[in-house]
Every structure is written in C-alpha cells, then in structure tokens.
C-alpha cells in the first residue's frame, strides 16, 4: 500500500504538471519565431500606413518589448521599440504606394530630425498625430501590463515545472511506478478536459473568449483599441487565433506524451500495488 505522503506527492505532482503543461503552451507562444511566423502569415489591412513586411517587423519589436525581461532598464526597451517604429515610419512615409495613408503632419513628424537623436520623443509626436502611426500612451501602458504579467509569472511557472519533476523523481526513487503513472495521467487528463471546453468556446465565439481572457488578466479594461491603430494592425484577430492554436497544440502534444508514458507505467508488470 502506498503511504499517505506518497499519495500526497502524487496529487501535488499532478496539479503542478497540469500548470506546467499550460505554461509550456504559453512559452511556445512567447518564442520570437512564433511571433515572426504568425505576423508574417497574417493578412494585413491595405489602408495601414505601413507595408505588411514592416508590420511584421514591428510586431517582432513589440513582442520583444512585451515579453523579454527588462532587467531594470525600461527606457532602453522603449527606445528600441520606438526606434523600430521611427525607422519604419521614415521609409513608409516616402513610399509612393502608401502616400495616401500619410498626412502632412504625420510625414513631418516622421522626417523631423531630433537633436540629439530621440526615437521615443519622435514616436510620441507620431502618436500625437494618430495611433495609426505609432503606439500611444494607452497602447504602451497595456504592453507594460503584459510585460509585468509575463515576467512576473515566469519564475512561479518555472517553480511549478521544477516541482512536477521533483514529485516524479521522488515517486520513481521510492519505486512507486504506479503512482508516477497516475500522476502522469491525471494532470494531462484534467488539462485535456479544460482545453476541450475552452476550444469549443473559442470556436463558437472567439471574440467573447478573447474578451473574457483579457478581462480576467486586465480587469482595469485598458486592452481595447481602435481597429486601425498600430497595435491592432500589428496583431489582428487572426494573429491571436494563431497564437491560441499554437498554445493549444503545444499543450496537447505534451499532454499526449505524458499520458502515453503514464499509461505504459501503469500497465507494466512488477509495478507497485497500492
């Protein structure tokens, strides 16, 4: 018979594994190649001041600002993002194919030299003309909220993963293969059930699902923006549908691997009996 503490380790390991599987999907979404692939494949509006290629590059720059740890240097992160926006604006405002999308004020703001060079101030001037040209204060504040959420959660999620591995190692070391198998089955099974429900919701009403997700993590409500704003043209609805698919696929694949290994452990002869 398994001892009480061993069953407790199994239960805790299952819970931690469930969180880890969900976090793995988030981690896949946060990788730079994921943003690059989805931004490059997502159709962009023709009336944007920027070309599709420029929007894809800006999406990567905004991803870096939003996801990467800033290590106490937020102004440097902002300067890199605004520098990318200003660089794109200088080229786009003189592109004949985009001439109709640039007002005289916007073009002057893009081409006005800053002494000394100050991409943050120049981007603010562009945003003051319209949030079509640069990220305004509200957009940057939302990205800052996302950064605090992601970088704040990352250490806790890493601890959950370490805890799941430790629980599995403890059970294996004490010869509790069946309990280890149960841990590897219970967590992924719970995650599969939750994902099935969420996937059904997203398939039926993606915008409702998207709004509920943002309302949960950003209750202050500063996550809605005009459809023609730079933030939305960089990251349209289909981009987020793709992110959801990447998240779900990553979690599902890892869950299947855990389930398969767990079932195999439970079926092996000579396992412990509890």
Strand residues, percent:
under 5%
Global geometry: elongated
Question: Strand tally, please?
Answer: 0
Q: How far apart, in Å, are the first and last alpha carbons?
A: 4 Å
Number of helices: 11
Signal peptide: 1-23
Transmembrane segments: 149-172, 184-204, 239-263
Organism: Parvibacter caecicola
Keywords: Membrane, Signal, Transmembrane, Transmembrane helix
Provide a concise account of the structure shown.
74% of the residues lie in helices and 0% in strands.
Protein model, in words:
This protein has 274 residues and is mostly helical. The protein has 2 domains: 4-31 and 156-267, no CATH class; 44-138, no CATH class. It has helices spanning 4-30, 32-41, 52-67, 74-92, 104-111, 119-129, 137-173, 177-204, 206-217, 230-234, 237-267. Helix 2 runs antiparallel to helix 3 (52-67), helix 3 (52-67) packs across helix 7 (137-173) and helix 7 packs antiparallel against helix 8 (177-204). The radius of gyration is 23 Å and the shape is elongated. The mean pLDDT is 91. The chain crosses the membrane at residues 149-172, 184-204, 239-263. Residues 1-23 form the signal peptide. Pfam families: Lit. This is DUF1461 domain-containing protein.
Structure keywords:
single chain; 274 residues; mainly alpha; 2 domains; 11 helices; elongated
Protein topology:
Blueprint: H1 4-30, H2 32-41, H3 52-67, H4 74-92, H5 104-111, H6 119-129, H7 137-173, H8 177-204, H9 206-217, H10 230-234, H11 237-267
């Amino acid at each position: 018979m398994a001892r009480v503490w061993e069953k407790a380790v199994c239960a805790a390991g299952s819970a931690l594994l469930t969180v880890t599987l969900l976090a793995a999907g988030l981690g896949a979404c946060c990788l730079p190649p994921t943003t690059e692939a989805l931004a490059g494949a997502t159709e962009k509006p023709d009336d944007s001041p920027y070309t599709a290629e420029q929007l894809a590059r800006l999406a990567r720059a905004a991803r870096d600002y939003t996801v990467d740890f800033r290590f106490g240097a937020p102004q440097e992160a902002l300067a890199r993002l605004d520098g990318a926006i200003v660089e794109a604006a200088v080229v786009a405002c003189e592109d004949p194919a985009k001439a109709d999308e640039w007002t005289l004020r916007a073009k002057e703001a893009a081409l006005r030299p800053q002494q000394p060079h100050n991409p943050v101030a120049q981007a603010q001037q562009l945003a003051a003309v319209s949030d079509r040209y640069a990220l305004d204060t509200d957009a940057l504040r939302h990205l800052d909220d996302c950064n605090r959420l992601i970088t704040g959660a990352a250490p806790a999620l890493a601890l959950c993963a370490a805890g799941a591995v430790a629980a599995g190692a403890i059970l294996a070391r004490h010869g509790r293969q069946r309990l280890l198998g149960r841990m590897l089955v219970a967590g992924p099974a719970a995650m599969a059930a939750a994902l099935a429900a969420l996937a059904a919701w997203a398939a039926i009403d993606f915008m409702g699902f998207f709004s509920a997700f943002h309302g949960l993590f950003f209750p202050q409500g500063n996550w809605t923006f005009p459809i023609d704003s730079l933030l939305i043209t960089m990251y349209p609805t289909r981009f987020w549908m793709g992110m959801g698919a990447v998240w779900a696929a990553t979690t599902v694949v890892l869950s299947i691997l855990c389930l398969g290994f767990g079932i195999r452990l439970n079926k092996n002869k000579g396992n412990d009996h509890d």
